[in-house]
Design brief:
The chain is α/β, with parallel strands linked by helices. The chain folds into 2 domains: about 45 residues; about 350 residues, Alpha/Beta hydrolase fold, catalytic domain (Rossmann fold, 3-Layer(aba) Sandwich). It is built from 12 helices and 11 strands. It has an 11-stranded mixed β-sheet with strand order 3-4-1-2-6-5-7-8-9-10-11, sandwiched between helices. Strand 8, helix 9 and strand 9 form a beta-alpha-beta unit. Helix 4 crosses helix 12. The N terminus and C terminus are likely disordered.
């Protein structure tokens, strides 16, 4: 609708300026200005790309364990429904059945990328998650000129809540994914190396903070649970895992990846970082916190990050739960996903994603500028702004 309105306004204005051209010179100059304005407006309203998709397989640098990575990217090829399983293999059943048990995406499978240069966003899921957990965000970013890579982080021999595989493995896997995409024969030449960002949910938020320059500390989690015994759900899992990790992790190496220039966090796990460690994150950060999150509670994670990070914006999503940031599940998989597929009563997950995905694109557009431009950094507020999304409000517009 926006481009039609702009085009109509331009046509009306130009038509009104053409009549006196044979007599007056001033309307000629006015017409030239109007034409320039209309060309600029048309360029800004240019249609988005179609989305290409393919899968690659990598190996964890610590254990040698293989893990799949989903890739979405701009393409000119026409999309078609594609159904992938939790392991990123294709569903070969009839579409009616695949739609219930697999993840559907309107993409151009294995299509060539569009001509151009694009930013790169790596998406890190939460504990127990999948590469496709944030596929709607990935497709939105790809349609707006980004290559998006999402690994399914290796599970290791234990759980993926704590231990070396999380504290050290996850950040190193993000760096490994960046290496692989930059070296990729199809996509590497299209990536602008100064335009790399990371998105992380829950423990993926820990991962994003670590690669952005916050040095994690196992002792910080233990101290958090000693100081905040009311944080019962987090400490029942994270605290116990952290105490076990103190015997396993040992020295944590430098995990910062200087190629990462901007990050987005959703219901992030901030407990592994001291305030001093967070203060060293020099890149822009956008934090989404959920009002009804009982795993990474707002006051100990989202709001704390808003105060401790030097360049952070924070959004408090009213009515949302911890898993509201994960894309909706297919019907049959909702039963398997359990808590991850459920939201607080009355909350519309799909409506949130319509709003949030656009905001994230805008954030990366501001903070990951093409070569030769410098992002403008203002002093963000040290508290979270409220975001309210009414159920189905977006479907009625």
């Amino acid at each position: 609708m926006g481009s039609t309105m702009v085009g109509g306004a331009c046509k009306t204005a130009i038509a009104g300026s053409v009549r006196p051209l044979a007599i007056f010179k001033r309307p000629v100059r006015l017409l030239a200005v109007l034409l320039l304005v209309c060309v600029a407006a048309t360029a800004q309203a240019a249609p988005s790309w179609n989305v290409g998709y393919r899968k690659i397989d990598l190996q964890d640098a610590l254990t040698g364990e293989p893990f799949p990575v989903a890739l979405w990217y701009p393409t000119l090829a026409a999309p078609a429904p594609l159904f992938v399983t939790d392991s990123l293999s294709l569903c070969r059943l009839p579409a009616m059945l695949c739609r219930w048990i697999a993840f559907e995406m309107p993409v151009a499978h294995n299509a060539p990328p569009a001509v151009g240069h694009f930013g790169l966003i790596v998406v890190s899921h939460g504990s127990g998650g999948l590469a496709v957990n944030h596929r709607d965000l990935a497709m939105t970013l790809a349609s707006q000129g980004y290559v998006v890579a999402a690994p399914t982080h290796p599970r290791g021999t234990g759980n993926d809540i704590s231990g070396v595989g999380v504290w050290v493995g996850r950040p190193k896997q993000i760096s490994r994914v960046i290496d692989a995409v930059l070296q990729d024969g199809m996509l590497g030449s299209h990536i602008e190396g100064e335009r790399i960002g990371v998105v992380g949910h829950s423990n993926g938020g820990y991962t994003a903070l670590a690669v952005a320059g916050a040095a994690p500390s196992v002792d910080a989690v233990v101290a958090h649970c000693q100081q905040h015994p009311d944080d019962t759900n987090f400490c029942a899992v994270g605290g116990a895992s952290a105490r076990k990790a103190t015997r396993e992790v040992g020295h944590i190496p430098d995990l910062r990846d200087p190629r990462v220039r901007s990050i987005v966090l959703m219901a992030p796990n901030a407990a592994p970082f001291t305030d001093a460690a967070l203060a060293k994150v020099a890149v822009p950060v956008l934090v989404y916190a959920a009002e009804n999150d009982d795993l990474t509670r707002v006051q100990y994670h989202g709001e704390r990050l808003a105060k401790a990070l030097p360049h952070a914006e924070c959004v408090l999503v009213k009515g949302a739960g911890h898993f509201s940031f994960v894309t909706s599940f297919p019907m049959a998989l909702k039963i398997v996903a359990g808590q991850a597929a459920r939201d607080p009563d009355g909350f519309d997950r799909d409506a949130l994603h319509e709003v949030m995905n656009r905001e994230i694109v805008g954030f990366f557009n501001r903070t990951l500028r093409p070569a030769g431009t410098t992002p403008i950094r203002s002093a963000p507020p040290s508290s979270c702004r409220d975001l309210r999304v009414s159920p189905r409000q977006l479907n009625s517009t």
